[in-house]
Structure formats: structure tokens, C-alpha cells
Amino acid sequence: MSAPMDFNILTCERSTLKEKIKMAHRLGYKAVAINIFIPELTQTSKKKKSQQQDIAPAKSLKLSDLELQELLGPTWKSFRQLTRISATLADVQHNFVMSTDIVQQYDLVAVQPTTDKTFYQACTALNVDIITLDVTEKLPFKLKRTTINAAVQRGIKFEFQYSPAIRDSTLRKYFIANAQQFVFCDIGKNIILTSGCEKAMELRGPYDVANLGSLLNLNAAQSKAAVTSNCEALLKHSESRRLNKSVSKVEKLEEIPGNETWLLDKLRVHSSLESVNGGSRDIAGIHGIDSSDEETSVDGPAAKKIKLVQT
Amino acid sequence: MVRFKNRYIVCKLEFGCRVTLPDLTQDAVYRAIATELQVLHGDYGTACARKYPNLTVQYLNPSTNLVMVRCSRDQCKQIQSCLPFVKKIGEVDVFLHTLHLAGTIRSCMKFIVRYHKSQLPLLMSECRNPVERKKVQEMLTDSCADSGRTLGLLERSTTSQ
Amino acid sequence: MYKKVVSKGCLDFCYMKVRLDFEEGTHAHIDIVAFKQIILEAAQSMFGLALSCSLIDVLIYEKSSRTAVLRIPNINLSKIWSALSLYSNMNGLSCAFRILQISPHLMALSGNSRLMSLEVVEH
């Protein structure tokens, strides 16, 4: 099984958080996302700064390298921590907050729609990675295949949390009922299963979680994907969300017009490469250097530098 | 086109001592079946019965004790397995006698009409006074204006009296 | 002396190695009868009488580490597995079932190659 990941560990006091991360590492998860949950998005207005919501900066959520090393021992380097922010969407008017820099700096952005209109907005327009579907009560809105397909095409994943099912018997029923209803509309694509745990004991191993997929009418491949490959795809989606939208154009070196040869120096492409494998090796070289440059600018909310050739 | 496939089960409520409950409600029957579902199939069964198409009692005839229950096609076997275990509705001892299983309401309604028609001659033999007998006779003639077989039954029952 | 058995298709039973974990600091003494009772309770709350009546046998139970080897019918594997995963509360104590190994052959549960380490012997 490729790297299993758990993208919903609720933030809490430091000692409990450390316990949870230790448990996740012990169970075999390769990456976790520490989640800060905002129950209501309030309007941030320039005039009324006193009412502005206090959203903590993303870096304060994660454990420092030293703490992680102490906690996990020699294998701490392969364990990845991400930051995540989730909010409930109740009003279509307030949702511009999700596009602000404070929110977008988090690695993963998740929303939980509560009405038809906010669900439609989240699937088609909002710049988010995850749409959480509530498992604590009956789904308040009707699911439409067209809306869900729009989200699937954009690469957004739908999340179901299994920790409520572990805590309480009635929540278990809603978890299964809501998830089965969703899987019926969605044919099991783009689903991730995460924990949403409050205590370390509510975490379950990746194979156990994959088996819960069979309760939700997912087939074996889809259940496994819910814990592994969909999560990896989500990481890529979050990276692309934080970068500017850009277009890449692939050109052979020989065909670059005269006034753009400065690009060769800028991208540090050496002429010796030209002779090795012809044009294709150079193109790969250009892409390779570009992506490494992009990684360094990932921390910032948006890459302002132009790295790829824009048309 | 997303199509929710249903199953409709027509059952008769059989009371031990031929009692008809005048205050029998669809809710009471639903709760009896849902309790058995929880016992037999646990949280999973109840959860499957909650998503659309959910388990509901669509039709209830308190005078003839007929009940029509709707469930999803996937859960049909589970629900059918619960029906024999329903022993009480409220405080009254009762059991469910399954008469018909169909995929559409229309088919079930057609069956119910046929069933009522077939029960009328039996009712006739259980009439205790001429007023009741006359009423049942009228209902019979109305219902089987086009049905030759039931008319024959009617003639035989009237000649025997 | 030895008998060769060739089986084709799905085998009837599946063997599962499980461990019952409690929170750190909880002292819970569970004997084999109580352990089986917990498993049946988990199966019953999740899937009702229909699942708790299936043939779940505890073949070996180790009290100190609360580890056991169970034998379950193959048709019920997925259900019993999910029922055990979702069980979290025993008499008010927070607990979790950790499924260590699953195999249709009991022999496979005797060793776990993931726990082995390679030793390089230098001549």
C-alpha cells in the first residue's frame, strides 16, 4: 500500500497533540494534517478590526523538528506534518474569507457546507481542497450528481470522518447513512476517509480504515484509494492551489526566438546538454529546474516570480 | 438518470383474537419494524434504512389490517428477515403475514384490490345479522361487476343460506 | 506421515490476530471469556444478532498483552473487521482493537516477516 495519510487531526493542547501524532506514527501513517476548525466564518471588514476573526498563523500548529524528533525517534524524518484549516459554510456572502491570504497559507483548506447554495459554491467556485460532509446529523441538503462531478473535475476531495462513528452509536448510523447516500450519487470517486479524532485512542490503522470503506458500499480499490492515493492527489492539488495559475509552453531550444535567449541563462540550461540527447532532454531539464525552484517558493501564499514560460 | 429502486412489501397484521385496533397508526408499525431491525441487523441495518429510499410504512388500512412497507431494493432481504420477528405493536400481540412483494406502488395497489375482493365472500360467511349481510352483498356486487368467478361464489353462498 | 491438502478458491475460515489496547495507565484485567464477550458485543452493536451468531472462535489468548488469534468465517471477515475497528468503549474505559494480521492460513500468523531484521554475517 502506498503511503497512508490521515488528514484530520484536530488541534488541541500540546500534550494531547503529541500523543495523537505518536499514535498516528505508530499505526503506520506517513503524513498527518493538523486541523484547526473554525465553526463560523465572520465577515472581516477593514472598518471593524475588533471583530476580526483570530486565525492563527499556519506554522504555529505544527510540532517543531526537535519535538518531533524526541517524540518519534529515529524515523522522524519520513513523517510529514501538514497544516489544515476547516470552516463551516453557512452563508454564501461570507465565503470570500476562504480566499484571503491568512486562510490560503495553510497546506490544506477544507469547508463544510450546510446548505444547498454553499455546497454548490464550494464545488464549483471556492478555492478549497476538501469538502467535508457532516456525519453528526442527517445531510441538510440534497446531493446532485452534476454538482459533485464539477468538484471531482476540479480535483476536490470529499471527506468523511470516522471518529464520530467510534465515539457514539447514533453518530455511527448517520456516518453510514450519509456516506452511503453520497457514494450512490458519486460512484465512489474522490473520497477520503479521515479521523477527526479528539483523543489518541480514536485513531485506527490504515488497513482498518480502508476496510470501513466496504461498509459504505465502496469497492476494495476505492476503499484503499480513500486512505492512500486520493490523499496524495490532494497534496498535489493543494500545492497547485497555492501557486499562481500559469501556463507552460514546451519549446525546442533551436526554435527559441533571438530576443528570448536570455531565458537560457536565467534557467541555467547548459549548452552541453544539447548534444547529449537532442531537444527532449533539454525540455526535461527545463522542467526539472523549474519545479525545484517552485518548491522553495511554496511557503509563501502565492508565487510572484515567473518560472514557467507564459504564453 | 439516477434511479432509486424500491421494494414494496404488502403484509397483513394477524391478531391472535381477531381484534382490530382502531387507533393503529403507520408510525406504530414503523417503530415495531425498526426496533426489530436494530436488534437483528444493528447500527448498520438501521443506518441503511435511514438513507433514501428509507424504510417507511406507506399504506395502512386499519379495517382490513393491511400494511404496505417500502424499502430500498438493496435492503429488501434484510427487512424481509426482520418481519417474522415482529411480535408486538405497542402492547398488542401481533404478527406480520407477508402477502405480496413488488417493485412499484401500482402493482401493490392492484394486488390489494384483488385481495380485498377475494376476502369479501369470506366476510359474507362471517356476517351475524341481515343488515351486515346486505352491506357485504352490495359491496360484492359492486366490486365484481366484471368478475365472473366471484359472482359464482356469491351465488353459491346466497343459495347455501 | 504428512498429508498434502490442495484447496481451490476461497477457504472457509480466516484467522485474525488482534490486540485490545487501552489508554496508557489503564489497568484492565481481561480473561478469555471476557475477551470473547467483548468481541461479540462489538459485533452485535454494529451488525446485530445476525453477525454475533456467526462462528467466532478464540483460538489462543494471551492475557498479559491482551493478544488473541481468532478464527472467523470468510464471508463475515469484512463485517467483523469493521465491527472491531469501530468498538471504542468497554465499561466506560476507552479502548481500541488493533488488527495485527489477517490470513486464511493459520501458519502465516506464526511469523511476521515485517518484524524480521536482516543480519549480515561477515566471513
TrEMBL record, chain A:
Protein's cellular compartments: Nucleus
Region annotation Disordered: where it falls in the sequence: 284-311
Taxonomic superkingdom: Eukaryota
GO molecular function: RNA binding
InterPro entries named in the record: Pol/histidinol_Pase-like, RNase_P_p30
Swiss-Prot/TrEMBL keywords: tRNA processing
Single GO BP term: tRNA processing
Entry's transmembrane regions: none
A GO-annotated cellular component: nucleolar ribonuclease P complex
PANTHER family associated with the record: RIBONUCLEASE P PROTEIN SUBUNIT P30, RIBONUCLEASE P SUBUNIT P30
Family: Belongs to the eukaryotic/archaeal RNase P protein component 3 family.
Protein name: Uncharacterized protein
Organism: Dreissena polymorpha
UniProtKB/TrEMBL annotation, chain B:
Any single GO CC term annotated in Swiss-Prot or TrEMBL for this entry: ribonuclease P complex
Molecular function via GO: ribonuclease P RNA binding
Broad class of where this protein is predominantly found: nucleus
Entry keywords, A to Z: Nucleus, rRNA processing, tRNA processing
Superkingdom, taxonomy of origin: Eukaryota
Annotated compartments: Nucleus, Nucleolus
Record's keyword annotation contains tRNA processing: yes
GO biological process: rRNA processing; tRNA 5'-leader removal
PANTHER family in UniProt: POP5 HOMOLOG, RIBONUCLEASE P_MRP SUBUNIT
Family that this chain belongs to: Belongs to the eukaryotic/archaeal RNase P protein component 2 family.
Role description: Component of ribonuclease P, a protein complex that generates mature tRNA molecules by cleaving their 5'-ends.
Protein name: Ribonuclease P/MRP protein subunit POP5
Organism: Dreissena polymorpha (Zebra mussel)
UniProtKB/TrEMBL annotation, chain C:
Gene3D superfamilies the record matches: Ribonuclease P, Pop5 subunit (3.30.70.3250)
GO MF annotation list: ribonuclease P RNA binding
Protein name: Uncharacterized protein
Domain of life: Eukaryota
A Pfam family: RNase_P_Rpp14
Gene Ontology cellular-component terms listed: multimeric ribonuclease P complex; nucleolus
Stored PANTHER family: RIBONUCLEASE P PROTEIN SUBUNIT P14 (PTHR15441)
Keywords: tRNA processing
Keyword tRNA processing included in the entry's annotation: yes
Keyword tRNA processing: yes
Residues of the signal peptide: none
Biological process terms in GO annotation: tRNA 5'-leader removal
Family membership noted in the UniProt record: Belongs to the eukaryotic/archaeal RNase P protein component 2 family.
